[in-house]
Amino acid sequence: MSDLSKQVIKRFPEQGDMQLVSLRAVTKFECSHCQTTKHAKVLAVVSGDWNRLLCNGCYEKTLTENGGNSPRTRIPAVLRATFPVITLLRVDTKGEL
Q1: Residue 3 Cα distances to 23, 27, 34, 65, angstroms
Q2: Would the pTM of this model clear 0.85, i.e. be above it?
Q3: Per-domain boundaries in the chain
Q4: Backbone phi, psi, residue 2, to 5°
Q5: In 3-state terms, what secondary structure has residue 86?
Q6: Which residues contact 63 (CB under 8 A, 6 or more apart)?
Q7: 4-45: per-residue pLDDT in tens?
C-alpha cells in the first residue's frame, strides 16, 4: 500500500474502475493518463492501484468518454465546482439532471 493512501481523508463512490479520493494536503503526483506532474488534494485511483493516479481533468474526461453513465448527483461537489459547464451538460440514462 502506498504512503499516499494513508493520507486519504475521504473516498467518493467508485465510478467504474476509478475512485476519487480527497487527501489531507496538496500532494505532488504524476497523472498516469496525461503524464503531467500535478499538485492536488483530490485525485482518482484506478483499479485500487496507487501507481495509477488520475488528475481531476483526466478523471472527468474519462467519465465523459465512457458515456457519463452515472447521474450528476453522484459526481462529487468538488468536481462540479471545477467543471461546471461539463457537469451541467451531463444527463443520466433517464434524461434527468
Answers
A1: 11, 11, 22, 30
A2: no
A3: 3-89
A4: -70, 150
A5: helix
A6: 15, 16, 18, 70, 75
A7: 889 999 999 999 899 999 999 999 999 999 999 999 999 999
